[in-house]
Every structure is written in structure tokens, then in C-alpha cells.
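Following up on my earlier message about zinc ion. Here are the inputs again, as you asked, copied directly from the submission form:
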Amino acid sequence: MPYTLLIRHCGQLLTLTGPPATRPLAGPDQSGWHIITDGYVACEGSRIAAVGPMAELEESQLTPATRTIEAHGRVVMPGLVECHTHLVFGGQRAAEFERKLRGESYLDILAGGGGILNTVRATRAASEAELLAAALRHLADFRRYGVTTLEAKSGYGLDAATELRLLRVAREAGLQQPVRVVPTFLGAHVPGPEYAGRPTDYLAMLVNEVLPQLDPAEIPFVDIFCEQGAFSVADSREFLTAARNRGFGLKIHAEQLHELGGCEMAAELGAVSLDHADYLSAEAAARIAAATQGRTVAVLLPLVPLFLRLERYAPGRAFIDAGLPVALSTDFNPGSCPSKNLWLALSMGCLKMGLTPAEAVAAVTRNAAWAIGQQQECGSLAPGLRADILVLNVGSLPEIPYWLGDNPVQQVIIGGELVEENM
Ligand SMILES: [Zn+2]
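Thanks, got it. Here's what our run produced:
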């Protein structure tokens, strides 16, 4: 079959390919992936057909029907994989943001019925159509930033009916536009207001009333927030074990504000990712890397401490040196990070967590794909993978984190189709 799309004269083609094949990139491999100078990417329909230096382009595969995109010596890379978002929610919390800036504490706001309960009320009150319209708007914004695959958690319903509604909306949003959406069930975000002070009873309700209604083929992951004021390590272990027994992949929000041991517990259960990890020590990271043979990814969320004005950031440099694979994400949500700018998260991963530009790019592509089980589909530029490709407006890899807060995306290709062009 001839090429349907050719992207040529890529000054730096960031393929993100290279060993190992059977686990995420860790240690020296996180920056050791391949860059091709003056390269091309060719696609056949929705898949990548060939990647290589311009000198090796098979001209015989080109026809008058082949669409050609000139990269003019700029950087070309895989589409961004956004591996941790709370995409579907009602309302927003700008008024609370302003109150916090004026000096009110999170606990004051929570005591007045604000915080996450504010979003839960707005989410429960929103119709399915309203939630879908908001999710589609956010997805369009993510797409302009070059996100081509996105994980979307439930977790602002906190009752069986609303949680199921949020998962339906996430799936429907994935069908109505080109960004691939991977839904995660996070009913165990905090105990629902009807279960205040009874977290164990709330989790039992989720296990008995919600998990049996979910199909792991449609909702591949179950997540829990393990933290003071949310769920204990013991309760989280029991809940995740129940989810694993039903065939779900596991994720955890842990070590965000305290070192409780949630990350090690979830790694022991075979979780695909450990998210936040701001209080995870380098020693614990090394134990997790050894115990999981480098298969569990630490998903770091540097825009959260920025937005919450906290001092502590996950020691990403130490994690990579300890052999723990690192991914980066925004944690897009209405409370602790309303940003959809994964490029800013990438830069902050360099500035506040000590990643190099090459490690940070791997953290938003190949390792992020591993963190949501999509590594066979996306995250690198190799024959057979989905043709999710970005043409940037920069000329070299270190320029990506350097233009702080910028959107370097010029063209977005998803499944072999040009879906965005920022001129
Ligand atoms: Zn989160």
C-alpha cells in the first residue's frame, strides 16, 4: 500500500524508540531513546508505515494522492499522552481561588461547604448533555496543545448513579472527537457526603453497587485517593484488591501530602501507575523499582504544588536514578490544577523535579502511554503504531521546555489525519 501521508525534512525526529521493549523507560533509558536528524515519517491510513532519515525514503511508495507536510527542519514527535485528568465535572471554582489568594485556608473553605463538595454539588446538578459539552470543550483545548490520547477519571459524583454517568460521558466524549479517551473509575476520590466519617462503608458500596456494573474492557482502570481525609492504606488495599479480582488495572493517588506508604502498597498489588508521589522518598522509589522490575510508572504532577502554592515537588531526578520510570501530567481538575497545558507541566518537571529535556519528553509520550496501558498504540513513532504525530514550531529538543508556558504545536495528526493547525 502506498503512503497516504508523508511528513518530511524533520530537523529532529524524536522517535522515542529504543530499548527496552517490554517495560517503560527508566534510568539511563529514559533519555536514551532515538533521535533522527533530517528524518521523515510515512503513514498508511491510520498507522505509521515507516520512519527514517530522508536519505532512506522509499520514493516508490509516494503517489499523487500522498499528502505531504513539510516540517522545514523543525522538531517532529509523537502526540502527547495525557495520562492523568479529571476531565468530567460541573462548574468551576474561580471564586474559591480568589478567596484562597486573599488568605482563607482550604479548611475554612471546606467547612463552608466549598472545595471538592462544591464541585460534587455542581456535577450532580448538571445534565449528561451539559457534562458532555464541557468535556468536549476541554478536549478541544487539549487537542490544540497536541494531546492525542487522554485518561479521564470519574470522581465528582461520589454516588453510584452519578459516577456511572461520568464514566458514560467520558466514553461518549472519546467517540465524538478524535482524541482517544481512556476512562478510569475514581469513585474512591473521597467518601461521598452521605458517608461522611464512614469511608469503609462508602468503599463497600462502590465494590457492591458500582464495580459489578463496570466492564474492564470499557473502563480499564480503577483508582483511589489514599491520603489523610480520604482513604487509609488498609482501606485502599482492600478496595484495590477487590478491583483487581474483577479484572481492572490499578492506579493510586498517593504520597501527595504525607508519606503513608500507599505507593508501595499499590505497587505490590501490581498497579500500572503511582500518581503524585511528592512525598515518596528515593529509598521507597528504589524498593518499588526493584519489586516491580521497573513496570510501575510514577506519574508526577508538578502543576499541582504550583497551583496550591506548596513547596514540595516529587524528587523526579532521584526516581529516575533509582530506576523508577517517570511520566508527567497536568492532573487537570477544577480544584488543584485547572491547567490543560501539558507543555508547562513538562517544563516544570525540568525546573522543579530535575528532569532533563529528553527525560521529560519521554515522560509525556512513551512512559505516559505505559501508565495507561496504551504503549502498543501510541507514545512513540514506530511502524504499526497509530499515526499520532506533532509538528512543532521549534528546532531542537531543549527548546521544548525552554519556551516556558508556550504551546509549541504547529500541526496535530491523529490516526493519520491532520486535525489541528496552529498558524
Ligand atoms: Zn488526580
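One observation from looking it over: The chain has two domains: 5-78+380-421, 81-371. Hope that helps, and feel free to reply on this thread.
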